[in-house]
């Protein structure tokens, strides 16, 4: 079952991963998984720019290969990028070698020391191996914008309910999420600004 905030046991599985940033700091860290794609990335970039918000994009290497101009637009706008494997590979059915080779293939296109596993999970052996090279970034809030059971209002309310100082908030740069994001993303950014949060990227 997917939940908006990770359970304690999940955090214990990956103890050196980033789940939340400084809890004393009135800041949030927006992240977007799975892009870039032409159906959603331009809207996300335009909306972030309108609110002077920066984010970290965890990209699929195959999408970067297909749409290099979108990758460049993200960097040119001052956002950070991270590795999300070459073809959104889940860790469950693959060896350490296959999984790490897939991440390396993506890194040849993305050039980042940040890594987020697809579906927010990988084998402990894969985590131990990849942690040697990458900083593994997880999340503090999942908006669930990808879910067909969630409305755009639900996505916004998840942010309002679970966000706190230092939250790493996960949205998706994808076909599954874009219809909800057209309402939820600007509303979210407006609410976060009203609450006094600063937008920061993961370095």
Could you explain the architecture of this structure?
The chain has 203 residues and is α/β, with parallel strands linked by helices. 40% of the residues lie in helices and 14% in strands. The chain has eight helices and eight strands; from the N terminus they run αβαβααβαβαββαβαβ. It has helices at 8-13, 41-50, 61-66, 68-76, 96-110, 124-130, 152-162, 178-194, and strands at residues 27-33, 55-59, 80-83, 114-115, 135-136, 141-142, 168-172, 198-199. The strands form two sheets. Strands 1, 2, 3, 6, 7 and 8 form a six-stranded parallel β-sheet that branches. Helix 2 (41-50) packs parallel to helix 8 (178-194) and helix 7 runs parallel beside helix 8. The protein is globular and about 45 Å long. The two termini are 30 Å apart.
How far is the N terminus from the C terminus?
Answer: 30 Å
Number of domains: 1
Biggest β-sheet: count, sense, barrel? 6 strands, parallel
Please tell me the overall pLDDT.
Answer: 95
Helix content: 25-40%
Could you name the key traits of this structure?
single chain; 203 residues; alpha/beta; TIM Barrel; globular
In short:
This protein is of the alpha/beta class.
């Amino acid at each position: 079952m997917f939940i908006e905030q990770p359970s304690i046991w999940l955090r214990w599985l990956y103890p050196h991963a980033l789940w939340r940033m400084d809890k004393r700091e009135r800041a949030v860290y927006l992240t977007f998984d799975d892009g870039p794609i032409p159906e959603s990335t331009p809207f996300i970039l335009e909306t972030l720019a309108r609110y002077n918000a920066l984010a970290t994009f965890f990209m699929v290497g195959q999408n970067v290969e297909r749409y290099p101009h979108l990758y460049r637009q993200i960097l040119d706008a001052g956002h950070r990028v991270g590795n999300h494997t070459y073809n959104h590979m889940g860790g469950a059915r693959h060896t350490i070698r296959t999984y790490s080779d897939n991440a390396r293939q993506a890194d040849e296109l993305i050039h980042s020391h940040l890594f987020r596993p697809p579906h927010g999970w990988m084998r402990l052996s894969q985590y131990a191996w990849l942690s040697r090279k990458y900083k593994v970034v997880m999340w503090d809030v999942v908006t669930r914008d990808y879910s067909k059971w969630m409305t755009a209002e639900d996505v916004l309310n998840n942010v309002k309910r679970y966000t706190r100082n230092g939250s790493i908030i996960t949205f998706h740069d994808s076909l599954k999420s874009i219809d909800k994001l057209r309402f939820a993303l600007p509303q979210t950014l407006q609410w976060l600004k009203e609450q006094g949060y600063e937008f920061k990227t993961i370095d």
